[in-house]
Every structure is written in C-alpha cells, then in structure tokens.
C-alpha cells in the first residue's frame, strides 16, 4: 500500500502577509494543498500568488 503525506496550508487569502508565508513555505518544503478564504481582504493577492505555486489540491473556506 502506498501512502501519501498531504501538507495543507490553511487560511490562504487571509492577508497579504499570510499569503507570502504560504508561498514561502510552498517553495521551501513542498506544501501539497491549500485552503483559501474567499471572503477575506487578501483574496486578490492570494489568487495572484497562487499562479506562482501550483498546488495539487485546493479547497475554499466560506466563513
């Protein structure tokens, strides 16, 4: 049986600072998925940043 480790970065879209941290972590340690907060002030920044780090999976948080 093959096992896969999923490393999820939560709160993508919360703020530009959080977005930068997630992108840096993606580049440094291989984050495999994100959870994007679509109704937060950093959404536009997160969408732009996501183009530079294509993760294999993503989910949306509707808070």
TrEMBL record:
It comes from the Bacteria. Pfam families: YdjC (PF04794). GO terms for molecular function: deacetylase activity; hydrolase activity; metal ion binding. Keywords: Carbohydrate metabolism, Hydrolase, Magnesium, Metal-binding. GO terms for biological process: carbohydrate metabolic process. InterPro entries: Glyco_hydro/deAcase_b/a-brl, YdjC-like. Its cofactor is Mg(2+). The keyword Chloroplast does not apply. This is Putative glycoside hydrolase/deacetylase ChbG (UPF0249 family). It comes from Paenibacillus rhizosphaerae.
């Amino acid at each position: 049986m093959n096992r896969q480790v999923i490393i999820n970065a939560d709160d993508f879209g919360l703020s530009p600072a959080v977005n930068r941290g997630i992108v840096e972590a993606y580049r440094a340690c291989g984050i495999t998925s994100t959870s994007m907060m679509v109704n937060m002030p950093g959404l536009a920044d997160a969408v732009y940043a996501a183009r530079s780090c294509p993760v294999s999976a993503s989910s949306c948080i509707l808070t």
